[in-house]
Amino acid sequence: MKKRGKLRHIIIELGVHLPYSIFGVVIGIMIVGILTFFTTILGVSHRLPGASEELFHIFHPAHILLSALVTTAMFWKHERRFIKTLMIGFAGSIAICGASDIFLPYLGGRMLGTDMHLHLCIVEHPRIIIPFAAIGVAVGFLIPAAIEKSTEFSHSMHVLVSSMASILYLISFGIPDWTRMIGAIFVITIVAVMLPCCLSDIVFPLSFIDHKDHQGRGHTRA
According to the model, what pLDDT value does residue 110 have? Predict the structure, then answer.
């Protein structure tokens, strides 16, 4: 019964967040498409991979921050255990964002026959990644009490940033002419963004909720 109740709660949360996820993915693709269009008409399309890599190193840390925020907020509003929430916030953001922005786009590009380069930011640029994760976790502790619908709103922003990071990774490390493969890129982005984002924001934190503490939340325990 306990597992059924937890599964039912996860399904409800997924249903609530689904429209935000779809909206974020579509808008993300449109924004990156507009950026690609302007590089083309300005005659600097050959610089797109380098510029995209620089942008990726902005959007990927931003994605980690938002993921840490939402994962922490989602768990904290159901169970008030500080250390446990801290660990879940870090693990659910760094690992799952790496899968969303890097590993799944890498696999998708390889499946399309592209010679993709595997670039692991947490290994190569830890000084960029760790501060964003730390700030995201810290804000995640505070935001549920400040904004009633904080997790739904920040989840939509999370998906938007994630979709842009995933496409920017594909452009930077293997597929500079991504618009010619827009159908396949759209499918890759959907898989790379929606599943890990929902896993990070919803399934991952809610899977660790103690049912008894959830029923009687309101008391903070370390």
Answer: 93
